[in-house]
């Protein structure tokens, strides 16, 4: 793409971050983007498409860990961007290290998923594999980052010094529908560490959240304490959840998913559901 087509009308500091990202992508011959349809990977894919054109492709991991609405959004956006999308079932529940669900689950899962995408990229003759971590991720407990380094993947957003707010701002500048999406995580993150993962548990979590997404607008997590569903909601949704007929509908959706009880967590949504990391214990 011509240089003038890579220019965006941005404030100076944001423009510098965008130019760093463009320069990093221009250094690549071809690329596979690990794509989820979330905020970060969507910006990465859109930027890579602008810079590399048809030399970028995307890989989407499906299966028990991926909510169906996220897979649908990823397909829609890849089609909109004109990027070839490869889908694969990572079969996470076949891996005992993942099923054990200890605090290193994310490492084992990332190693499996990204490893398969790297193999696919090699088969397709793509020179590199990129994932969507950005600089603010380093502040959180993310054991999966070890897998990224071990596999030799690149993280162009982080390398360009872009944080979450800059990613969202650039997404708006590019007209991406993902710019203001709530934070997302795989369905396994709803199960407390130490509780083994099962297809049945992941299915009921996904079914409950899909039903609640029609009623509530902010961050939403159904934490699985079967037969209890502990609901974490954004502050703006807490009061709404107690008003009729929303309260009754919430109970109906949760029970229809297979739970016996719907419990509202008054602390609201927080990353990781309040579980302590190994460093905090």
Could you characterize the architecture of this molecule?
With 281 residues, the protein is of the alpha/beta class. It is built from 11 helices and 7 strands. Strands 3-2-1-4 form a 4-stranded parallel sheet, sandwiched between helices. The radius of gyration is 19 Å and the shape is globular. The protein starts with 11 loop residues before the first helix and ends in a 17-residue tail after the last strand. The mean pLDDT is 93.
Topology of helices and strands:
Blueprint (H helix, E strand, L loop, with lengths): L11 H15 L4 E4 L4 H14 L3 E7 L5 H14 L3 E5 L6 H4 L5 H20 L3 E3 L13 H8 L4 H4 L4 H10 L25 H14 L7 E6 L2 E6 L1 H8 L3 H11 L4 E4 L17
Parallel strand pairs: 1-2, 1-4, 2-3, 6-7
Antiparallel strand pairs: 5-6
Helix pairs in contact: 1-2, 2-3, 2-8, 5-6, 9-11
CATH class bucket of the largest domain? Alpha Beta
Can you summarize the main beta sheet?
Answer: 4 strands, parallel
Q: First CA to last CA: what distance?
A: 51 Å
The name of the CATH superfamily of the largest domain reads: HUPs
Overall structural class, as computed from helix and strand content, comes to alpha/beta
* Gyration radius over CA: 19 Å
Instruction: Write down the CATH topology of the largest domain.
Output: Rossmann fold
Q: Total number of helical segments? A: 11
Strand elements, count: 7
SSE string, helices as H and strands as E = HEHEHEHHEHHHHEEHHE
Q: Assign the CATH architecture of the largest domain.
A: 3-Layer(aba) Sandwich
Low-confidence stretches: none
Order of strands side by side in the largest beta sheet? 3-2-1-4
Q: What is the domain total for the residues?
A: 2
Please estimate the helix content: 40-55%
């Amino acid at each position: 793409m011509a240089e003038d087509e890579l220019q965006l009308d941005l404030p100076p500091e944001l423009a510098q971050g965008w130019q760093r990202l463009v320069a990093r992508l221009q250094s690549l011959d071809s690329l596979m983007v690990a794509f989820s349809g979330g905020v970060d990977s969507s910006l990465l894919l859109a930027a890579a498409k602008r810079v590399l054109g048809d030399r970028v492709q995307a890989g989407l991991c499906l299966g028990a860990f991926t909510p169906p609405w996220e897979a649908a959004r990823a397909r829609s956006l890849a089609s909109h961007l004109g990027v070839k999308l490869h889908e694969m079932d990572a079969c996470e529940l076949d891996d005992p290290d993942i099923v054990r669900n200890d605090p290193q689950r994310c490492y084992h899962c990332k190693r499996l998923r990204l490893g398969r995408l790297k193999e696919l990229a090699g088969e397709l003759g793509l020179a590199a594999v990129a994932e969507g971590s950005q600089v603010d991720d380093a502040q959180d407990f993310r054991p999966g980052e070890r897998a990224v380094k071990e596999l030799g993947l690149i993280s162009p957003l982080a390398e360009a010094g872009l944080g979450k707010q800059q990613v969202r701002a650039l997404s708006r500048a590019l007209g991406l529908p993902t710019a203001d999406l709530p934070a997302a995580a795989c369905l396994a993150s709803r199960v407390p560490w130490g509780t083994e993962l099962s297809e049945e548990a992941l299915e009921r979590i996904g079914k409950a959240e899909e039903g609640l997404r029609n009623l509530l607008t902010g961050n939403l997590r159904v934490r699985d304490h079967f037969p209890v569903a502990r609901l974490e909601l954004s502050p703006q949704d807490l009061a709404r959840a107690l008003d009729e007929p929303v309260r009754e509908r919430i109970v109906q959706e949760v029970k229809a998913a297979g739970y016996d009880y719907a419990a509202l967590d008054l602390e609201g949504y927080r990353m990781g559901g309040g579980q302590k990391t190994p460093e905090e214990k």
